[in-house]
Amino acid sequence: MNRKMMIAGNWKMNGLSAEGIGLAKEIAAKVKQKKRTCEFVVCPPFTLLNLVKKALRGSKIALGAQDCHFAEKGAHTGDISPVMLRDLGCEYVILGHSERRADHKESSALVAKKVEAAHNCWLKTIVCVGETLEQRESGKTIEVCSRQVRESLPEGSRAANVVVAYEPVWAIGTGKTPTPQEVEDVHAAIRQVLAKKIGKSEAAKMRILYGGSVKPANAKEMLTLEDVDGALIGGASLKADDFIAISDNAGC
Ligand code: 13P
Q1: Is the predicted pLDDT of residue 1 greater than 80, yes or no?
Q2: Is 242 within the bounds of a domain?
Q3: Which of 23, 72, 165, 225 could form an S-S bond across to 209 if both were Cys, CB 3.0 to 4.6 Å?
Q4: CA-to-CA separations, 249 to 55, 217, 252, in angstroms, rounded
Q5: pTM of structure
Q6: Does a structural domain hold residue 1?
Q7: Segment 193-218 mean pLDDT
Q8: C-alpha neighbours within 13 Å on the C-beta side of residue 153
Q9: What average pLDDT does the chain have?
Q10: 74 CA to middle of ligand 1, Å?
């Protein structure tokens, strides 16, 4: 199956205006020199979306946000709706990241509502799943990830509007990673769950990214596996050189 690799940067809660613009421009300049066999996405914090959109003008890099509410508008102080993201020029939104599941007690049911709302206004979603260290150590990795995939994807999820990201919680920002074989096993299990949920042919087309301490040094072994279709990169996406080196090592 020929799935287009995706290299996505999740900037998390990092960057003020000048830095964000500078980083976006640097990434855009470097991506321009590539053959563009991969899809690039950057997901800055809400505060930088507009500035980064302008900095990326003329590039093929897509803009993504890191969360959204499920309502289109209304009395939700401090929240941002999917329609607003669309209005700002976002193409993607990350939903169900483990930091939101932990910090904001987001359940998979809530994530599914957000995913559905995002799809309803033509945003594509990057839906994150992953086990904690405790769950891994008690042998529950595949069970936990499978359940999160089943419960976080609403009706209408298709390869054209959803990218799944497998991010083991214990690998995020720690420098630790699962072995390539462990990653491949989880990705293959996720694809099986997807096949049951959305049908075999859609599941075969849907991209599954790996995220969690992806660096230039481990990108090749993690991102050239059969069922791994790219990376969702945190820390290393804040340095243009590292972000691009990861994509180079992934064959982009
Ligand atoms: P790190 O690459 O910093 O481990 O973060 C991964 C992540 O959470 C991306 O969403």
Answers
A1: no
A2: yes
A3: 165
A4: 25, 8, 7
A5: 0.98
A6: no
A7: 98
A8: 30
A9: 97
A10: 32
